[in-house]
Amino acid sequence: LVRVTLSGLCGTDLHSYHARLWQVDPAVIQGHEAVGVVHTVGEGVTRIQPGERVLVYQAFGCQQCLECALGNDHLCQVATNHHIGQKRHGGRADFIVVTERMCLRLPEWMSFEDAVVLSCAGGTAYAALRKVNTSYDDTVVVFGLGPVGLSAVMFAKAMGAKVIGVDPKHEQRKFASTFGADELLGTEPGDPAPLIKELLRGAAGAVAVECSGSSVVRTSTILQATPIRNTTRIVYVALGASEDRMPVRVGQRTVTGTHIFSLPDFYTICSLIAAKNLHPGEMVTHRFPLEKAAEAYQLLEQQPSGKIVFDAALE
Ligand SMILES: [Zn+2]
Ligand SMILES: [Zn+2]
Question: What's the farthest any 2 CA atoms get from each other in the chain?
């Protein structure tokens, strides 16, 4: 039993809020991003003690299949809808019951704010960059500078890459500059593709990270902006509002999809954050008590820069 201190709001929550991409069981408490303090433990729990600060890993697997054995509980070959807020109650509550395996102990130096950002947006961005082997000789173009995009900017920078952030909103671009983006582009006066192409001209390696969910970016901008490097690695992160057809014949480019992050990723993220003295928690910009949930979701709809959280301390 974990006492929830912070529960994050995520772009994905809007799909549930409007029951857009999947059916939502109204009897299940929402919220797949939760961090808190272990309150009590059941019989047989030996690794986690009451009083410990934890990030609640959002997925739970069968514990028996190959993916679960590899720490990829989020890719379990047996379980379905195995995220908190889907089959199990989520984090929009004072307390949440989870398994011992889902409790990832926070390093002493890590704040709850850092952890709530990592619990979804940060972890997702990190895993996406690792999937395409982001390195110091890459130029990484991040499309969409919400919390996932901001995290991608921060981690790509920490991995040594040059980073270009693209977002139509001035506020998002301004915020991204504080997380280390080298270049920031909007969509004014028009399509940013030619400019991105120009910026990629001298790059040794090119990576495109799609965090916007915009169908224009997904199907057109990326493919027009990145052919300068036939070996561009493209990773589609955002779910997007529609199921856009993914282009397959793209020269020698690598197109990758990604879904949150694995259990082992958590430990390597923590070591990167410590080594580079990063502060993902600075992405938390808006706090609400749970009673003001409707207000919080309204704000989420407007896509403000930064992360919105429910903060138990405000109740
Ligand atoms: Zn999320
Ligand atoms: Zn499994």
Answer: 62
